[in-house]
Each structure stands twice: as C-alpha cells, then as structure tokens.
TrEMBL record:
Keywords, in A-Z order: DNA-binding, Transcription, Transcription regulation
GO molecular function (one): DNA binding
Origin superkingdom: Bacteria
Protein name: MarR family transcriptional regulator
Domain spans labelled HTH marR-type: 10-141
SUPFAM superfamilies, alphabetized: Winged helix' DNA-binding domain
Length: 151
C-alpha cells in the first residue's frame, strides 16, 4: 500500500466520496464548456429527450426546487434548446419539450462527456464501473435531506 492509499483508508468514506465527487463535477463542467451547458442543463435536456413532460414532473425527476428549474428552463428557452407551452388539457400546467437544436446540442454533449468519462474511469474495468454505479445508487441520500438550490 502506498502513502496515498493509506491516507484514503483513514479518510471518512463520506469525505472521500465528496472529494472525488467534487473532482468529477469539475470535470463535467470543464467538458461541457464548449457546448454552453451546465450539468443541470444537460440533465434537463436528457429528461426532455424522452418526450414532452410537465414542468412539475421535471421538478420531481431532477429533484430540484421549482425556482431552480425555472432558471434552467429560462436559459434553455433563451438558447432555443427547449420550449415551454401551456397544456391544452389543463391551462395551469406547462409542458416542456426539447427542440431540434436542443437534441443536437445534447448529442454533441453526450459525445464530449463519453470521452471525459473514459478518461475519468480509465483505471476501472467495465465491470467495476457497473459495480460503482450500483453502489452509488444504493447510497442512502434522499432529496429531503438537503435543499438543492445551486448548479
């Protein structure tokens, strides 16, 4: 065991996860700069890419405060990447959908991120990456435990 590994073994698991998460977040942001998207913009477009959805359903999917989603949608609409319209069946609801330009930006961003993730996880086999995904999905963190108001 080398010095760095010994240090990580004594570091609390939550701190280790937070440190690596912060590094991954920075990698995501840097990779997305050329597309003009933030990670939150990209995740919103990914959810919209499956088809139109109500604004409230999008809040639930992204697990964000409604005011945060409004700001994200304002950005996406300004850049003509998404469109909000009233639901004809219930004029109180907004339906949000991705535009063709938004779909094109999302495809390019997916390619950029695939390359960046390849570098980030270069030392993990595909099986280890699947295991990491499974373990991260099983961590007991609920959106009710924090207020997500930032990117």
């Amino acid at each position: 065991m080398v010095a760095g590994e010994a240090e990580e073994m004594t570091e609390g698991l939550a701190f280790l996860l937070a440190r690596h998460g912060a590094g991954a977040q920075m990698m995501l942001r840097r990779a997305l700069v050329s597309s003009g998207l933030t990670p939150r913009h990209m995740m919103t477009l990914k959810h919209l890419d499956t088809g139109p959805v109500s604004q409230q359903a999008l809040v639930d999917m992204l697990e964000v405060d409604p005011s945060v989603l409004v700001a994200v949608l304002n950005d996406l609409e300004r850049d003509e990447l998404a469109l909000r319209r009233r639901d004809p069946a219930d004029r109180r609801r907004h339906i949000v959908e991705i535009t063709p330009a938004g779909a094109a930006v999302l495809r390019r961003s997916d390619e950029i991120l695939a390359e960046a993730e390849g570098e980030l996880f270069t030392h993990l086999s595909p099986a280890e990456q699947l295991l990491l995904r499974d373990l991260l999905n099983r961590i007991n963190v609920s959106p009710d435990q924090f207020t997500c108001t930032e990117d």
